Amino acid sequence: MIKGTPELIAGRREEIVNACEKLYQTMSFKDITLKEIGKEVPFSRPTIYNYFQTKEEIFLALFAREYDRWNEELAAILNENGRLSPQRLAEAIADSLAKRQQLLKLLSMNNYDMEANSRPTMLTAFKKSYGASLRLMESLLQKFCPEMTAAEVQNFLYMFFPFMFGIYPYTAVTEKQKTAMQEAGIPYVYQSVYEITYQCLIRLLEKSAEPDM
């Protein structure tokens, strides 16, 4: 049992996640350790273990927070618009993801290992944030694309959410990778997060709007 007021507990958890987020701006996942995170918080490193047992749990909490932030944007699209055409809906969702570079970066990681090295309670908390994204996207489709059947909505979700795992690697290509592709004879055309996301969304939405033959 962690001792302290709910405010203190929540505050310290936030400080730990913030420290991880700061390091993740300049360091890779494999190079970030609990020791490194401990250097960034105003309390002793052993205290971190009262809140998180592994660095994977800290990253999972950061991951959940990124989903929560995206969920706020999705909820705004849902609640602040009366009607949206497929084009406008695709634009709005693509714009919301373009603001969530860190979410996309986390999605490109090996999430299997991250989840495997986290306690069930931590994993459940993360899945709640992820599940909220699914439900919000479903609500967006039901409101702005009422012609879509339940099966079409489900197919959209099972195509778009896996697609999100590949957005960051395709839009954050390093100079080293560009050089390697040039030497391998692979043409590379840069696309932004917005562009690549919009193209996927509009194809999925327009396909669902096509009349059955």
Commentary on this structure:
This protein is 70% helix and 0% strand. By secondary structure, the chain is mainly α. The protein has two domains: 1-51, Orthogonal Bundle (Arc Repressor Mutant, subunit A), CATH 1.10.10; 60-209, Tetracycline Repressor, domain 2 (Orthogonal Bundle), CATH 1.10.357. It is globular. The model has no long low-confidence stretch (mean pLDDT 94).
Highlighted features:
213 residues; mainly alpha; Arc Repressor Mutant, subunit A; Tetracycline Repressor, domain 2; 2 domains; 70% helix; 0% strand; globular
What's the N-to-C terminus distance?
61 Å
Radius of gyration (CA) equals 20 Å
Number of helices: 12
CATH homologous superfamily identity of the largest domain: Tetracycline Repressor, domain 2
Total number of beta strands: 0
- Shape field: globular
Low-confidence parts: none
Could you say which structural class the secondary elements and strand pairing correspond to?
mainly alpha
CATH class of the largest domain, named: Mainly Alpha
Q: Describe the biggest sheet?
A: none
Strand percentage: under 5%
Percent in helix: over 70%
CATH topology description of the largest domain: Tetracycline Repressor, domain 2
On the 0 to 100 scale, the average pLDDT is 94
At a glance:
The protein is mainly α. The chain has helices at residues 6-24, 34-38, 45-48, 55-79, 86-98, 101-107, 111-116, 120-144, 150-164, 167-171, 175-183, 193-209. It folds into two domains: 1-51, Arc Repressor Mutant, subunit A (Orthogonal Bundle); 60-209, Orthogonal Bundle (Tetracycline Repressor, domain 2).
